[in-house]
Amino acid sequence: MGVVLDHLGETRLELGAARNAERKGNWRMGRDGDGIAWLALDKPDTGTNTVSVGALRELDGVLGALEADLPAALVIRSAKTGGFAAGAEIGELADLAGQDAGALLREGHRVLDRLEALECPTVAVVHGAALGAGFELALACDRRIAVEGASFGFPEVHLGLHPGLGGTFRLTGLIAPDAAMTLMLTGKTAHTAKALSLGIADEVTEERHVAAAVRAAVTDADARGHRLKAMAFGMAPARSLAARQMRAGTAEKVREDHYPAPYRLIDLWEEHGGDREAMQAAEIASFAALLDSATSRNLIRAFFLRQGLKSAGPGDSDIAWVHVVGAGEMGAGIAAWAAIRGCRVTLSDPDTAALGHAVRRAGRICKDRHLGTAGTRDALDRLMPDPNGYGIAQADLVIEAGPEDAGIKRGIYDMLGKRMKPGAILASNTSSLRLADLAQGVIGPERFAGLHFFNPVEKMELIEVIRQDRTGDQTIDRLAAFCREIGRLPARVADTPGFLVNRALIPYLMEALVLMEEGVPKDRIDRAALDFGMPAGPVTLADQVGLDICLDVAESLSGQLEKPFPDIPRALRDRVAAGETGKKAGKGFYDWSDGPPEPAPAEDDGSSDMPDDLTDRLILPICDACVTCLRQQVARSEDEIDAAMIFATGFAPFRGGPMRYARDRGPEEVRARLAALADAHGPRFAPDEGWAQIG
């Protein structure tokens, strides 16, 4: 919403005759003196529009009235400053799975076909985002006027779907089909300038000129002709060639058995792209089938898991100034991200070179985030190197990101306790040390908690918010709200060894290293994880996290868990001792000097020589650790555990998280498999007693 308001300023939205019209359901409509009907989408009790079944049925009634008394033109726009429409109601999609989705989809298509056929000019005025069904609503109009800052996109692929209300044939019929397919296959958005260049938007204007732009669009009766490229793709051989290229590009990113939606989209365009009526029927059938797939059900669930984490940080944090102690890898990332997200940030470290590196890193993050010149300048202005720690006395929140050494951290807390202002929160970014131990001697322990970011901070969405025995409720609530305010997902977890994410992840990483010691090639180990659906193999991930961090966490966990922990492989200790700590050092188990490593290809014939329990040895320890965390109430529910593992580690979202994977596979089967692995490889695989409660 903030981006939109940057463009709109304090200007009221131009709603024409709809401004003072009474809202009926989700819509407001009025006619102006020129006979133009202004129809505003204005969903009650929310700041964001969605295109619900109810909204479409109400639109159908509006169109019937307009057909009976045809206006000079129809203008459709949003009455919400936040944007045009965020897409369909995700809850309605979830409810449709397993039912007759086709019938409801056909009803929705009939409504948008009716809008498209209305015998007067129709204009969609779009500010903010028009996504999914909102984009399809705009596509059913004759013209689209984009207000500066508008964007258009089809994010359905992230839910295991493709457009389902006419987007597949309307967008490929409007703009170059290869460009249209790219938008749908990737889920990316076309922002204002790109939308204009592609032909999605017919005009770009500022909010104060919307009324004039509408009048011009209404009087311009020339139909936009199809581009020559679109006509060329009307021939089957051209579509088939392009489809083969699209499949090859898609296969480089996702597997068809994991994410079928992009492949089905390519199929329906290749087969029916020259026939709109056939493509419409195929879109409905394909969407309905995908909606009933396990992939879509789990990705829709992941959407709601994200919403659940967001709701864990309600209210305002009242944190405007953040001071970070330690300008290493994590501290620099935390400081940069907080500044980018609008906080005033001071960063202290006795090493002034580290402070300089942190500022340069912040600049690179700004560039990667496409903040532009002004945005980068503002973010860097908010980030102040502070070698003497003057900002400590002004900060609302002090984040300690020092070395993983309890003695060093306690020394930092002694210093901070004498300088922090009353009411300020102290949070540690420790990844493995018990907060209860660190809290000894802390001034104001009720305002001391854990705030565990993951590396790289600018990319990892989850933050563990950790309560120790004396942490106050208000402190946890403020920290959770702070996470949400900086665009991150707070997971409230208990103060136990490894907390939640590292407790589940480190056995996975250690088992990979044990397999390497047994002689299994590292690229084959990574390939097994990728074939399961993990975003990176465990050996690659260990290099990315940092082998020194992996070693610290493993050593911390090895003496604190109920069950035996894998012996820490000598190879890990040797790499760390040699300074080969992974990606950040340019070399770990892989050589990163020439870019990311390539795992063994999926079709490698040598895979037949691999242990037949390879995948289970990697994945099932994660599931078992999650069951332990559930039993020990490290997190409050299976949903919270799955959410944390998906958004902190990328655990195969299409499988729904480790707990959902275990349930889908069958808890008894997983428990029996763990017992068999324990017999074969040792007690580290012994199933946790909590499996008895997973039914």
Molecular structure report:
Residues 498-592 form the 3-hydroxyacyl-CoA dehydrogenase C-terminal domain. Its EC number is 4.2.1.17. It is an enzyme of class 4 (lyase). One of its GO terms (biological process) is fatty acid beta-oxidation. In the N-terminal section; belongs to the enoyl-CoA hydratase/isomerase family. In the central section; belongs to the 3-hydroxyacyl-CoA dehydrogenase family. The chain is α/β, with parallel strands linked by helices and 695 residues long. The chain has 3 domains: 2-292, Alpha-Beta Complex (2-enoyl-CoA Hydratase, Chain A, domain 1), CATH 3.90.226.10; 321-494, NAD(P)-binding Rossmann-like Domain (Rossmann fold), CATH 3.40.50.720; 501-693, Orthogonal Bundle (N-(1-d-carboxylethyl)-l-norvaline Dehydrogenase, domain 2), CATH 1.10.1040. Helices cover 48% and strands 11% of the residues. The chain contains 29 helices and 18 strands. The strands form 3 sheets. It has an 8-stranded mixed sheet, with helices on both faces. A 7-stranded mixed sheet has the order 1-2-3-4-5-7-10, sandwiched between helices. Strand 3 (36-41), helix 2 (53-68) and strand 4 form a beta-alpha-beta unit. Helix 4 runs antiparallel to helix 13 and helix 22 packs across helix 26 (614-631). The longest helix is centred in the middle third of the chain and has 18 residues, at 294-311. Residues 1-10 and 223-228 have low confidence and may be disordered.
